[in-house]
Write a structure and sequence with these properties.
The chain has about 200 residues and is mainly beta. It is about 10% helix and about 35% strand. The chain has helices at about 65-70, 85-90, 100-105, and strands spanning about 25-30, 35-40, 45, 50-60, 75-80, 110, 120, 125-135, 140-150, 175-180, 180-185. The strands form three sheets. The chain has a seven-stranded antiparallel sheet. The termini are far apart. The chain binds flavin mononucleotide. Flavin mononucleotide (FMN) binds near residues 23 and 36.
Length: about 200
């Protein structure tokens, strides 16, 4: 085993070593009230109490999702299964600014409980979020959202809220690369579970 050092010129690709990502699809409201959707892999929970989530969004120039969140102060973070992986990929490509990507791609809307922005009915879970804070961290802006309501597909989860991966394949995105004048997106297939048992110590 031999470790090598990533060259300084390539240090901006450090994030490759944090792949694969679990992209979520953010829905936001466009200025005309239509719905926008795009996938974001740089997302993670940052607090359980209060419930808060973070997503890093490109800010130079800001993508449509960031512009919409800044205006509307809310978004829905939708957690996909592999059933919608092709639509997730479509949502990552630019569409004309006067069309609703959500409608063009053909997602079904999931009405939200406490915010205006709808979620995606085909996703296994949707987190309704209100903007808590944004932090400029570099070429991305970290959006921190208060999670207000979580709705989820009951059949896809155990009572302990563990995903049943044999019926609801999680979306795990490894890579994207150019090939034959196009782009290939590689997703990791889940191949069952490897459980590790830890006995409680007798006291
Ligand atoms: C799997 C995947 C993950 C992505 N993750 C991010 C991310 O974390 N942050 C980001 O700014 N863009 C990310 N993108 C790119 C955006 O989805 C893309 O720029 C999209 O066009 C933005 O759409 P919008 O302008 O409607 O917001 C990702 C794309 C893919 C395919």
């Amino acid at each position: 085993m031999a470790k090598v050092i990533l060259s300084e010129e390539q240090i901006d690709e450090y994030w490759s070593f944090l792949q694969p990502s679990r992209p979520a699809m953010l829905t936001t409201l466009n200025k005309d009230g239509t719905i926008n959707v795009a996938p974001f892999g740089w997302n993670m929970p940052v607090s359980a109490n209060p419930p808060r989530v973070s997503v890093a969004l490109v800010n130079s120039p800001p993508n449509r999702t960031l512009t919409n969140i800044r205006r509307e102060k809310e978004f829905v973070l939708n957690i996909p299964t592999m059933q919608v992986a092709d639509k997730l990929v479509q949502a990552s490509y630019q569409h004309p600014s006067d069309v609703s990507k959500f409608s063009v791609i053909g997602f079904q809307r999931l009405e939200s409980r406490v915010i205006q922005t709808p979620g995606i009915a085909e996703c296994r879970a949707s987190l309704e979020c209100r903007l808590f804070k944004e932090v400029d961290v570099g070429d991305h802006t970290l959006i921190l959202g208060d999670v207000k309501v979580v709705s989820f597909e009951e059949e896809d989860y155990t009572k302990d809220l563990t995903l049943k991966i044999d019926q609801a394949w999680p979306v795990i995105h490894l890579d994207q690369y150019r090939k034959n004048g196009g782009q290939v997106h590689s997703f990791v297939k889940t191949a069952g579970l490897h459980n590790i048992f830890v006995p409680y110590n007798d006291r």
